[in-house]
Amino acid sequence: MASDEIIREVYKVLEERRDNPIDSYTSKIMQDSDKKAEDKILEKVAEECGEVLLAAKNDENLVYESVDLIFHTLLILVYKGIEIDEIFEEFARRRH
Ligand SMILES: N=c1c2ncn([C@@H]3O[C@H](COP(=O)(O)OP(=O)(O)OP(=O)(O)O)[C@@H](O)[C@H]3O)c2ncn1[C@@H]1O[C@H](COP(=O)(O)O)[C@@H](O)[C@H]1O
């Protein structure tokens, strides 16, 4: 059974891919010469935003496309050195 813990698990793997690169999609995109890596990840985030928009409008693959967007958003956060708890704390701070 999938659970929300998967977000923490994936985040940890992404930090591992950043810190100890292997031959994989996420390691490669994060190791690309500094500025290029950031641009490539941000390009994916922008692309996935458009795909979520189309999926919602057309009632197609919304979960799949949203996970692509969330995944690439997590990737830029990891790349920029943000700790996962900072994200949860920000959500908690907004609770009312
Ligand atoms: N959740 C994901 C995940 N979601 C998407 N992707 C990859 O992101 C890449 C780009 O996604 P796209 O949707 O643009 O796919 P695409 O192949 O360009 O095809 P289109 O959508 O354009 O048709 C693809 O290669 C996907 O496989 C992911 N790659 C990895 N993960 C997780 O990240 C961890 C580390 O990944 P690796 O670096 O591959 O070990 C894995 O253990 C997974 O848990």
What is the fold's blueprint, element by element?
Elements (H helix, E strand, L loop, with lengths): L4 H15 L5 H7 L2 H25 L3 H18 L4 H11 L2
Helix pairs in contact: 1-4, 3-4
The structure holds phosphoribosyl ATP.
Phosphoribosyl ATP binds next to helix 1, helix 2 and helix 4.
Unreliable residue runs: none
Q: How much of the polypeptide forms β-strand, as a percent range?
A: under 5%
The first-to-last residue Cα distance is 30 Å
Q: What bound compounds does this protein have? A: phosphoribosyl ATP
Could you state the order of secondary-structure elements as H and E? HHHHH
**What characteristic shape results from the CA principal axes?**
globular
Please tally the β strands and state the result.
0
Give the biggest sheet. none
Provide a descriptive summary of the structure in words.
Helices cover 79% and strands 0% of the residues. It is an all-alpha fold. It has helices at residues 5-19, 25-31, 34-58, 62-79, 84-94. It is built from 5 helices and no strands. The site of phosphoribosyl ATP has 9 residues, from helix 1, helix 2 and helix 4. Phosphoribosyl ATP is lined by residues 10, 13, 17, 24-27, 68, 71.
Features:
about 100 residues, about 0% strand, binds phosphoribosyl ATP, 5 helices
